[in-house]
Amino acid sequence: MSEPKKYEAALDSDSRKTPVRVAFLTRRTSPHVRTKDDALVMTWPETLFRAAVAVEILAIVLVLLSLFWDAPLEELADPMQTPNPAKAPWYFLGLQELLHYFPPVIAGVLIPTMVIIALVVIPYFNINVEAEGVWLRDKQRRMRIVAIVVGVLSVLFLVLEVWVILIPTLLVASFLFLAAASTPDSPQTFRRWLVSKPLSFWIMTWFLIQASVLTIVGTFFRGAGWIWVWPWRA
Questions:
Q1: Cα angle vertex 24, ends 20, 30, to 5°?
Q2: Overall pTM > 0.85
């Protein structure tokens, strides 16, 4: 049997300091509760309401764009004369660019499957709820792990000559090691910002940069036969 709560009368208006209290009110007064605004908001209704407003604004913008500008559609498809190169929609051009470097099973099946499995499995690991910087604890051990992972990936991409993946990987890794060389008391604001970022930030940043680079290369830098061409010479 749980112990009964103790209610004590006290002259205090701070609901966080003394959340259980008895207030004596006269006929012409009302309770005054003093609290501080939190940095977080409740999912319902605040967050969902903001998401609904953002979706409505985006829908209105898309409708206005479709009214004033036509979609850049090409001519009717002709089975006797296929375009060269035959490019997928922009949201699949990243995968099509991967097909240029890897076999179809790896680029079209293995890599997307690994990404989906990672999105499903990662939330079940010991997630850093406080989102502290990746270098604030066990710095030496984490630096060895990151160096090994970056080194193995760099050698693999270098051997396969996958420059569009190697260069963004080295770029993100350079900022990651710059954060390792920084401290929360660094004089530069940018370095203090880097060192405060958790591992999830670096993984997501690498993924977004990589997806953007693959899509941009497949859209503007591939010509007939999927050879490399400069956009101003296409």
A1: 95
A2: no
